[in-house]
Amino acid sequence: MQRVLIIGASPKPDRYAYKALKMLQEYGHEVSLLAPNWETIDGLPVYRNIADVPMPIDTVTLYVNPSRLSAYIEDLLTLKPRRVIFNPGTESDDAATQLASQGIEALEACTLVLLRTEQFD
User: Which parts of the sequence belong to the CoA-binding domain (predicted)?
Assistant: First the structure.
């Protein structure tokens, strides 16, 4: 079991961030959520700032536009997760380089595929 933070969480069932929440829970992972627009999603609190998220976090999975990543980088470096997953459409060479320079694995992959193929852990 890992502690996973979804950045860009959504309550909309058609969004991949929501699908990731459900699948992470199905696979027994403890999930925290971060997004600016909601108080709760499926009964879970939604945090607005990384500093408010209960620690430690093993994996961060991103569902935000790369242009918005710079707002999270410093807090991610402070959080020091083992890895950050850049889901399709979130890739950022600059962010990945900054994370890797601090020993945080930056992985371009799909959280859903990693879970389904038993490569998430």
Answer: 1-90
What is the distance, to the nearest Å, from the Cα of residue 42 to the centroid of all Cα atoms in its chain? 17
- Amino acid type, 69: L
Per-residue pLDDT of the chain (121 residues; tens, 9 = 90+): 899 999 999 999 999 999 999 999 999 999 999 999 999 999 999 999 999 999 899 999 999 999 999 899 999 999 999 999 999 999 999 999 999 999 999 999 999 999 999 999 8
pTM beyond cutoff 0.90: yes
Question: Distance between CA 97 and CA 105 in Å, rounded?
Answer: 10
Residue 3 · residue 25 · CB < 8 Å: no
Rounded-to-integer distance, Cα 49 and Cα 110, Å? 24
Give the sign of the dihedral formed by CA 31, CA 32, CA 33, CA 39: positive
Structure tokens at 32: 């925290």
